Amino acid sequence: MSLVHHAGRHVVPLFVGLALLFGGLLILTVPPFGGSDELYHWFRIQQITDGTLLAERRGDNDWGGPVDAAAVAFDLALFGKIAIDKAPLSAAEVARLAAELDRQPAATVDLGFASTASFPPLAYAPSSAGLWLARALGGDPLAQFLAARAGNLLAYGMTMGAVIGLLPAGRLALTALALSPVALHQAASLSADPLNLTIPLLLAAALWSTRRAAGPISIGRRTGIAVLCMALAGLKPLSPIFALLLILLPGDHMGGARNKALYGGLLAAVTVALSIAWQAAHPFQPGLFWGISTDRPTAVLAALAAAPAHALGMAWSSLASLSVILPMDGYFRIGGHAAPYVFPPGLSLPPMTVADAETAMAGGRALVLLIPALSVWSALVILAALDGREAPDRRGAGVLGTVALLFSALLFAAFWLAYTPIASPMILGLQGRYFLLPAALALMAVSIASRPRAGWTVTLRGALFGALLAANAAVILWSAAYYHTLWDWTALL
């Protein structure tokens, strides 16, 4: 009972400590450019660190600009080893390469990397700050790379810690999810996901705590909510949908329903307008960039309207396949490339086609991970239900759950229209990490709708929390042991 009490009372420092511990391990163990799309994030982070916040147009559907030549050479040399040669890396050789590149005269290379250059700079602020500090201290490209990862991890630890601290309920479930292998892997990489994940959650937590507060909402709190909401426009294109969370604002604390509608409506409109303005100035079609699709979204829509039966069949096959793949991919996957540099070994997730999904399921390979993954997700839901609040707020829970479902549906639609060829039998490109945010909102919804339990259920809550933390640690340590066979990271210590 004491352990359960202390876990609930001191969960924020517990989270921050474990996030830095296991996230720090992932910073070292996942080889440079072995994380999700780090090849392209690296260029954008370098560009922002140089003071270029707005990428340059290089042609139709192409963005980029000048990037430090040593950083480009470092990127391409390691990425070639990992993605093309698929060979183990020597930390000593990587360190020698970085030192050699650091001695070269300063120069830039003009190149395109539209997949990240078209994104607003906000989500890259933590990694750019880390890289800038390493540069200021005379660090070579390897030191800059590790410092950029560390900047992301620190930002994730602080912002997610603030989210957990603001929650009146559901802290244990959200802590367990935030410490999951995929969440920490993204936080400890060059990905833009740390802020893409935490800023919407911070807005949700701030609105939830405001909903419980007594008396009028202060100017300071209103300003904070406004800043968080408008920050959504500086994240991924679908992020402004979380402005709908403003519905959670209590009308009686805003001076009435009319004032709430004016404040929330104006704030949401400004957020959406800022996002549309950025997307209009930096239009980008991922399917064309990756060579996956030559179809414009308008052509895809016309084809779906002309053959609704095919569209329904495609939607069903996608849901059937991805409902099996995404739970595993959203918990286990560490690394951003094909074998051998993707973890778990022997299983590349997610599949890109129905045939790949069938191959992954052949011989029960995927089922080895499916049962543990479903067990983890089930335990998270049960833990959230046992970690409720004194006065359930089912209306607020409905808002959170609805926004989570809407965002998930928009993810499917976005990849269908912008990334999937018309002739494809299923939607392409979706990954489990994209659904961490709606999963977190769903857990919050379960907690806000539940009452706290007493007696043996308190012990069960503590046992589930401990088991989830142990499972997270086991997977991360397993991945560290696996990557050590490919990347002798201990030589860096």
Automatic annotation (TrEMBL):
<feature type="transmembrane region" description="Helical">
    <location>
        <begin position="299"/>
        <end position="319"/>
    </location>
</feature>
<feature type="transmembrane region" description="Helical">
    <location>
        <begin position="462"/>
        <end position="483"/>
    </location>
</feature>
<dbReference type="Pfam" id="PF09913">
    <property type="entry name" value="DUF2142"/>
</dbReference>
<feature type="transmembrane region" description="Helical">
    <location>
        <begin position="261"/>
        <end position="278"/>
    </location>
</feature>
<keyword id="KW-0812">Transmembrane</keyword>
<keyword id="KW-0472">Membrane</keyword>
<feature type="transmembrane region" description="Helical">
    <location>
        <begin position="398"/>
        <end position="419"/>
    </location>
</feature>
<keyword id="KW-1133">Transmembrane helix</keyword>
<protein>
    <recommendedName>
        <fullName>DUF2142 domain-containing protein</fullName>
    </recommendedName>
</protein>
<dbReference type="InterPro" id="IPR018674">
    <property type="entry name" value="DUF2142_membrane"/>
</dbReference>
<feature type="transmembrane region" description="Helical">
    <location>
        <begin position="12"/>
        <end position="34"/>
    </location>
</feature>
<feature type="transmembrane region" description="Helical">
    <location>
        <begin position="366"/>
        <end position="386"/>
    </location>
</feature>
<feature type="transmembrane region" description="Helical">
    <location>
        <begin position="153"/>
        <end position="174"/>
    </location>
</feature>
<feature type="transmembrane region" description="Helical">
    <location>
        <begin position="431"/>
        <end position="450"/>
    </location>
</feature>
<feature type="transmembrane region" description="Helical">
    <location>
        <begin position="225"/>
        <end position="249"/>
    </location>
</feature>
